[in-house]
Amino acid sequence: MQKIGKIIIFGFVLFTGLYSCVPNKKVIYMQELEESVGPLVESSERYGYQTEEYLLQVNDIVEVSIKTTDPELNKIFNVVTAESNNIAQMGGNQGAGDAFFMNGYTINDNGMVEIPLIGEVKFLGLTTKEAQSLVESKVVKYVKEDEYFVRVRLGGIRFSALGEFNRSGKYTILQNRVTIFEAIAFAGDLGRLAKRDEVLLVRQYPNGSQIHKINLLDRDLLGSEYYFLRPNDLIYAEPMKVREIGAGNTLVETLTLFTSTITAIALILTLIQNN
Questions:
Q1: Are 167 and 188 contacting, i.e. CB atoms less than 8 angstroms apart?
Q2: Is residue 44 domain-resident?
Q3: Report field, pTM of the whole predicted structure over 0.70
Q4: Which residues fall within 8 angstroms of residue 248, CB to CB, at 6 or more apart?
Q5: pLDDT digits (tens, 9 = 90+) for 198-223
Q6: Domain range holding 82?
C-alpha cells in the first residue's frame, strides 16, 4: 500500500511540475521571437505602420458639425445636439461615450444618416473626408462657400473585450486611432492565464465579419494591419490549458495546491491502512 501511495505522490508531483506554472515567455508582450545574432542595442528596429482609410459602416456613430454665418441655419443644423444636451441634463451626468451617442448620427441599415434641413445622406462605404465633402456639397446650397464650416469624424473607437481580461466588457475610447495594446490596457490587461499568442480579433467589413488570430508576444505585430483597432472590433482571449487542469498559475498557488493534495492523499492512505 505504501508503494502505491509513493507512486501516486510521484505522479502528482511530476504532473504539477509540468503543467501548473505559467512561464514568463507566455505572458511577456512584444518579444523578439527569433534569436538575435547582433550586438545588444538599446532600441529595436523601427516598425512602419500599415494604416488604411477606414470606410464607414452600418451602426457606426459619426459626429457631423455644421457651422455657418447664419444664426438661424445654425439652430437648424445643430438641433440634434441641442435636443440631446437637454436630455443629458434631465437624465443626469452621462459618460463621454454616451455623449457621442447622444450628439452623433448613427448610420442606419441602409447606410444613411438624416441631417436636419439636408435630409438623408449616404455615408456607407465612405471615408470621413469623403463624407465631409458630401455634406459640404449639400450645405453650399444654403450659404456661400466661404460662409460655412463642416466637420465629420467618428465618435470614438468602440470595441468589445471578452474572455481572459481582468475587466471584460464593451468600451469606447475617444481617440481617432487606438492600438490593440491600448485597448487591452483599457480593459484592465489580460489575465495571467490568457493565451497571448492566439488572441482572436473579430473585425467587421462591408461584406461581413472575419476572424484574425493575433500573436501579442511577437513585436512584428507593430508593423501589421492589426496593430490599430477599427470601430466595432471584438477581442477574444482564450484561456491556457492550465485553466482546464485547475492548477495554480503562480508558484505560491502551485505549492498551496500541492500541499493540500499531498495532505489529502496521506489522510486517505492512513485511513485505508487503519482499516
A1: yes
A2: no
A3: no
A4: 20, 21, 254, 255, 256, 257
A5: 999 999 887 888 999 999 999 899 99
A6: 61-154
